[in-house]
Target: Universal stress protein
Amino acid sequence: MYKTILCAIENSDEAESVLRKACELSQLCNAKLLITHIIPYKLLPNDYQKELKENALPSIESKAIALGIPKKCNYKVW
Model:
């Protein structure tokens, strides 16, 4: 069915639920799961953008690890 699933999340309580569903779907389809966190740069001051980007990856990693998604997955912050 699906070969690759892209899950875009933000640092919120709802993100864990969304990631859990994406993980379940990827396992069901035997698909690669890509997790990303997208920051709207045009709307934020530069210092705040940098702070968000630095905090996003650890947040994504902790949510993924809590769901048993292996560290070998590529976690990317754009």
In short: The chain has one domain: 4-77. The longest strand covers residues 32-37. Helices lie at 13-29, 46-66. Residues 46-66 form the longest helix (21 residues).
